[in-house]
Amino acid sequence: MSMRLVEVGPENVDAAVALRVRPEQEKNVAPVVTSLAEAYAYGERAWPRLLLDGDEPVGFLMAFLDMQWNPAEDPADRRSGLWRLNISADAQGRGYGRFAVAAVADELRRRGAGRMYVTWETGPHGPGEFYRKLGFTETGETSGDQTVGVLELA
User: What are the CA-CA distances from residue 91 to residues 20, 85, 97, 138 (Å)?
Assistant: First the structure.
């Protein structure tokens, strides 16, 4: 495998938008097209990337960078983490998700972050167990109806 992340641009945006997770996972993660619209809206606070194995698109991720977490409650609380992770239905179970999470952790470390946050939908097809296996612990918080997890990057 030759996994790598690339920026989403004119040459690969159609491939990114065409990525689909398994049907039972669709309720757990927004489609790539929604993430790209949010990346446009959030500008430098979003870090969208296409995950390739060789030249084959196998996934998409988007990190959030130094965003206000809950401005009404604590305007100084700024966090970074994994916003979206979409691994193509036929590419799951091959280590791409693990690679994607590690790549975001590396990028956040490079930017000086000490923690990486993620949120996930609970339920039978939710990714909670995946994130816990990678070392995320639940903070006890929720974001909307999603569980919040944190990974120490030290």
Answer: 10, 13, 9, 27
Distances (CA, A) of 119 to 53, 85, 141: 26, 11, 10
0.85 cut: is pTM over it?
Answer: yes
If one counts every other C-beta atom within 10 angstroms of the C-beta of residue 131, the result is: 23
Instruction: Identify the CA nearest to 29 among candidates 146, 148, 129, 149.
Output: 146
* Pair of tokens at residue 150: 């944190």
Phi, psi of 21 (to 5 degrees): -80, 175
For every one of its 154 residues, what pLDDT tens digit does the chain have, with 9 covering 90 and above? 699 999 999 999 999 999 999 999 999 999 999 999 999 999 999 999 999 999 999 999 999 999 999 999 999 999 999 999 999 999 999 999 999 999 999 999 999 999 999 999 998 889 999 999 999 999 999 999 999 999 999 7
Residues 6+ apart with CB under 8 A from 34: none
CA angle (131 as vertex; 154, 62 as ends), nearest 5 = 80
Contacts 24+ apart (CB under 8 A), 69-74: 69/117
